[in-house]
Fold this sequence. Notes:
Distance between the termini: 40 Å
Number of strands: 0
Structural class: mainly alpha
Mean pLDDT: 87
Number of helices: 17
Shape: globular
Helix content: over 70%
Amino acid sequence: MFHCSAQSTECSSQALKGAPRDLSLDFAKGMLIILVIIGHLIQYVICRDNEYWHSPYFKFIYMFHMPLFMAISGYLSHGALVYKSLSRSVADRVKQLLLPALFCGTLLEAIKLGAFKLATGSAPTSLRDVLFDLAKELVGSYWFIWTTFASFLFMRSLFALCGRVSAWVIGTSAIVVALTPLTVSIVPLARYTYPFFCLGVVFAHSKEWRTAIISRYKSLLMVLLSGMACACYFNWNKTTYAYNNLVLVHDTESAKQVLLMFFGSASASAIAMEVLLQVWRFGCSSRVVLFVAVGLGQRTLVLYLIQGTVFRLMDFISFERPFKLSVRIAIAAALGAGIVVIAAAMQWVVRGLRRI
């Protein structure tokens, strides 16, 4: 984010005018979607029976992958927040995020209905049950899509109400949302990730003096953030995840876990972003790095939707005998590669249809 903030508002306005996209951000997104898939492979294939909560690799990934994804989303959304009208920006987000999620959710429900009919020989009891299950799958399987859209909508409404929005207003909204004690459906995950969306918007919204100060003390900040990230990693446990603590503070222990979650995610996200940008800086001419940026980073939405559909279907698969670890790792590698291939094929088909 230190590198990104140097380009500030100029990047956002250029993006709206069709300027070349920042491939370093695509590379970061590509690496993050790889981590999303690996995290789910650990959860659904390599580890079973809730053992993944104690996996050091799972913990490493989940400390920062979605928070950093949301921060990048906030950073890239700054142009639409500032330069587009409310109606146009919301319409674009619906077309970009919600329509693909609706398509994949409908496909998921159709597969489930087909499997149910093959297994039982009968259809579900009513259309109401089908629609209810579809709504539940849409929200639960693709929760990040909905939290991203909700974060953008809330922030855009804030810009519309207040006109010029300062970093203090954005920061205050992040605190208010994070502390709102709502635990319905995916709301805790939205409350957890929204502050990172705000962080991305603030970096894109920052002025030159703020960028200069951050650059001047960058080395010191990196040392402090590295120490904080390591301390949080070693204290991170099952109750630190937003899925389990629901971002609720009701006693001293819960307050400790929620603070640990936010500070750990923020520090780990900052370190991860700096590492990814350095890798891009030194390896941008490599074919592998370019593939991650262009082949994966520019397909993150498709990859996220496909992997969400695949892993949701795996909830309905029961294994009678646990496989050996080596076999599970091999299955995970094949499944991860299959998800990438499917995403590439879908992108190719969509591009072909557009040319017709």
